[in-house]
Amino acid sequence: MKITVLYYTKIGHTKEMAEIVAAGARQVAGVEAAVFPMEAPDVQWLTASDCVLLGTPTYMADLAGVVKCWLETAGHKYPLAGKLGGAFATAHFSHGGGDIAIQSILHHLLVAGMVVYSGGDSLGQPVIHLGPVALSEDLEQYQSLFATYGQRMAEKAVALFGES
Ligand SMILES: Cc1cc2nc3c(=O)[nH]c(=O)nc-3n(C[C@H](O)[C@H](O)[C@H](O)COP(=O)(O)O)c2cc1C
């Protein structure tokens, strides 16, 4: 089972958290997770993936424009339909719109025909409603949350699609 974690970053925070999401996913038996910048995904790997996770910095209390542009064409460029999808964000402020950035991505994933999931509050602590948000001043504090998110998404992908 392959998983693709895509990110856009300018300063590096979102890439750092994308690597942690992928490490969490790899905790699940049979899962191989690879991380790519959104601008240059490995198309073969992405095509073969059953789960695609997207990370964005929060810009103007929403997703970054580059990510929106990617999403506007991705559904036609890549076979996203039917894959499991989710999103995570980094932000500077707790009230800065990280959740809104994630929600915007989830809308796009639905439009692309993806199966959207986060685990919500059904899996207990840590509760992850839409997807995890890390505040850039203290990324380390969010490592375990992001790894748990990656693991939960991978577990759901394996439950839906099997290990191979
Ligand atoms: C143009 C711009 C707009 C931003 N707008 C917000 C915002 O509305 N809310 C917020 O919490 N942080 C905002 N930030 C901070 C970034 O979301 C934050 O630093 C993020 O971790 C950067 O991600 P990166 O290191 O992957 O580029 C903004 C940063 C930039 C450059």
UniProtKB/TrEMBL annotation:
Extract the InterPro entries matched here: Flavodoxin/NO_synth, Flavodoxin_CS, Flavoprotein-like_sf, FMN_Rdtase-like_dom
Q: Which residues form the Flavodoxin-like domain?
A: 3-164
Name the record gives this protein: NAD(P)H dehydrogenase (Quinone)
| Phylogenetic placement of the source organism | Bacteria, Bacillati, Bacillota, Bacilli, Lactobacillales
